[in-house]
Description:
Blueprint: E1 10-12, H1 34-38, E2 44-46, H2 69-94
Amino acid sequence: xxxDPSKTQLIFVQMPRWPMPLPAFSSPPVKVDLRExxxxxxxxxxxxxxxxxxxxxxxxxxxxxHINGEGRSQFTHIFGDFLQRALAAxxxxxx
Length: 95
């Protein structure tokens, strides 16, 4: 089977996690990092994990798991800018 002719672009983003560092919720050590495996695929874009670090503050959350209105506004702005750049870059690769 030949290369996939699809122009589908997969984009992976780490969403804002919580309003402050929570040691009890720290990720366990990872033996295999999927970012390393997927980053070589031409149709995959992986956002920097720190992209939403600025939103991970108490003032952007209304509880421990959900961003509030101001947080959603910040998220939309940051993610929208990222998507424009990522999709523009993928179009130049596809064409």
